[in-house]
């Protein structure tokens, strides 16, 4: 990856969901705009706050999609990431998603 770009693969659990009542909601169901969790596979040399292996929250509708070895991935800028789920505490308060 170059500059501030991040390569993300959607997390496997982003498919079917269950409502609080136990109803299965298929991945193809139309819902309001949703953010998705994904796993970072690669980062550019200008990326500061995200590392390979992190889990990030982003909007997949606004990103570029690319297929690598038959699997869908997203290329996005670091600034398009809304949150990082991490247990690293060296630069923060110790709180994490």
Any overview of this molecule?
The chain is 0% helix and 40% strand. It is an all-beta fold. The strands form two sheets. Strands 6-7-1-4-5-8 form a six-stranded antiparallel beta sheet, with no helix packed on it. Strands 2-3 form a two-stranded antiparallel sheet. β2 and β3 form a beta hairpin. The model has no long low-confidence stretch (mean pLDDT 81).
Short note summarizing the structure:
The protein has strands spanning 5-10, 17-18, 24-25, 36-43, 55-58, 64-68, 71-77, 81-85. It is mainly β and 97 residues long.
Q: Can you lay out the helices and strands and say which pair or pack?
A:
Blueprint: E1 5-10, E2 17-18, E3 24-25, E4 36-43, E5 55-58, E6 64-68, E7 71-77, E8 81-85
Antiparallel strand pairs: 1-4, 1-7, 2-3, 4-5, 5-8, 6-7
Q: Number of helical segments?
A: 0
Radius of gyration: 15 Å
Structural class: mainly beta
Largest beta sheet: what is the strand line-up? 6-7-1-4-5-8
Low-confidence stretches: none
Total number of beta strands: 8
**β-strand amount:** 35-45%
Q: Please state the overall shape, judged from the principal axes of the Cα atoms.
A: globular
- Mean pLDDT metric: 81
Helix percent reads under 10%
Q: Please, what is the oligomeric state?
A: single chain
The first-to-last residue Cα distance is 26 Å
Order of helices and strands: EEEEEEEE
Characterize the main sheet. 6 strands, antiparallel
Keywords: Chaperone
Family: Belongs to the GroES chaperonin family.
Pfam families: Cpn10
Protein name: Co-chaperone GroES
